[in-house]
Amino acid sequence: MPGDTLGRAWIEVSGANPVLVNDYRQSLVSFLAFDRDHVATFAGTGFVMCGDHEKAIVITARHVLDYVWQLQRSDSISHSPSLAPKDFKVLWMGSDNAALMNVAHVSFNHSSDVAVCIITPQESIAPPFAPKSIPLHPIVPVVGQVVHMVSVGNLVAEETSPPEERDGKGLCLKILRSISIRVGTVTGSHPNGHRQYDWPCFTTSIPAEPGMSGGFVFVPEDGVTVAACGVVSADSFSGNARTDQMQCGNSIIACSWPAFGLTVPELIGGSEDGISQSLLELARNGNVPGPLGGIGHLSIADGVMTFSMENRSGNEIEI
To answer: Does residue 71 sit in helix, strand or coil?
Structure first.
């Protein structure tokens, strides 16, 4: 890794940066699925793109929602998870409090491993929810560029008291998790997909652990807002990279820009008519944070998604 005197391929820096850990904690959520016996299992991570104490738009990996559906043992043929509170919750943890959130909406397609969710506080509980937003940055980092991976790891949900009712009410859980901040480099850029990952992505030297899927990756730049250019998707694990920082990992990072083509109900932007709009349309209307750099257009043709964006010179480039 550039500048590292020990020549490490990646570095875990969360232990040396408690202030950063505390800051990122408020941007991250964890997805918790319940099966028919109310057994709780963590499915992965997500991050808040924008939100307030009443609702938030969360970005995650599509396959995290697929895993939620599998854990629920759902009979649904739609392969979309049940959003019923007894089946699906989202955990958010701040500096001094935590909240289990309901899922009001999910949107995804199969042209990318990126999904969008809307989460809201539980109705019966005063909301301590105070998220910090991570906007999206529609760039594809180049090989050799330094990137940071921020996610949730070591996810554990242990039952301490069984539910009192059939719908799961009264269930008590002991929940453990940690925030991971890892630094590494881009090892490959794959706008047309990579092996079985047939959507725009890039690879990094940072290994991803179970539960980290749905976290975000960004390019650090002095004076520039932290913004996600990628979503943690998979890890082609080989060797001892997860325990040996001298070994190069091989995480697969979905490009974040296809998220702008996903839709959410327009009521998020203040309308009550229930019409859905894409995140790009909502951003252009000023209802959600716009992408860093700006997107000129976003289109899908013959199953291939492309977009154009302004570079720092103000010229449009197409990817």
So the answer is: helix
